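ok so I'm stuck.
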Amino acid sequence: MKGHIHILGICGTFMGGIALLAREQGFTVTGSDANVYPPMSTQLESAGISLMEGYKAEHLQPAPDCVVVGNALARGNPAVEYMLNSGLNYTSGPQWLAENVLAGKWVLAASGTHGKTTTSSMLAWILEYAGMAPGFLIGGVPADFGLSARTGSTDFFVVEADEYDTAFFDKRSKFVHYRPRTLVINNLEFDHADIFPDIAAIQRQFHHLVRTVPSDGKIVYPRATASIDETLAQGCWSEMCATSIAGAGHWNAELIENDGSVFEVSFGGGDPALVRWSHCGLHNVENALAAMAAAHHVGVLPRVSAEALAEFRGVKRRLELLGKVAGVAVYDDFAHHPTAIATTLQGLRARGESGRLIALIEPRSNTMRMGEHRARLAESTRDADRVYWFQPEGMEWSLQDVVDKSSVATLASDIDELVADVISEVQTGDQVVIMSNGSFGGIHDKILAAMEVMA
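replied:
not stuck anymore, here's the structure
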């Protein structure tokens, strides 16, 4: 064994991935979290990782060789205070990843306000399909792999590159630690209002990331995106590769089907590659185009990427079909931002299903709770026929203003009443999409169970 690391905040997707990578490399791994529960707890325990509930000083006794501190931990936490007072060796998750896994690797990083998880999952799958056996660390669980992280058996490593801060003692964005050779910037909007005062502060962190890409590296980004263009204009020393659905980029997609389920990709004057897959929405076409361009940087031909995407099964909680009962489809989606809500609903609407599109939305992210996006929320649901906004406990403002701007919206504050309302009105052919970056009070299972009873 290489030594013992203890992870504070181990049940988050990122830190859980760090735990799996460390265990795979031969470290003894233990961890603490405020809430130890499936599915992450099951995944970790099956890997031989010991989990402890809460943050207690005794969890760090005897002293591990290193404490890896998650960014949800702050001063005043009992484990953090004991760690500092005892002079224990500690680091952050991103720093541990950089030093123990990414060193010497060809790192392919997917960044951006939206689509990081999906794009990194697509990219990892394309490389896997091409026989390149990549390692990866993704903030979700790609269905094609069934786990969020692995070391891999080659020099290629795909990482979801998050702009959120690193730790209480390192306020830089996580992604500045990763030193990518291939960088995807999907988009760049204001988010994480709890740590960034404005979009300029986020652009500054993205430019720190741009500064780390070597001159023989490549940066893939969507053409004519002002916030990204402004960031790159601050200085870029790497090859720039623009993508576009409008046909004016280095890599271009042309829709064959309006819902994005079939599209053609062209690059450099070669034969177009046709992608025919089970996914929909312009945002997914954009994600796929970026993943194909990034994969090409390490030698994967567009036609091979297209073949891989035809088999891509998606990511849990990214428009994941949970079930279909009595002709009603129920989806789970991680949407945490007005743009993500709008693009998900647009993709479902473009499928041309005859039934209604019903959205249940819990604005749960820190930025949403602070009300930063309230002016855009009503418009983000324009493609839905019916919208239920759920008022989370402890939210600093009322969603009533959002509801009042729409003739099809209703405000809910009780999960069981919301389930009853939805069940009373769904009809055969409807699509129900549940949107939250949390558990939403277990509403997914409750709705499916209630529908089964009614069927």
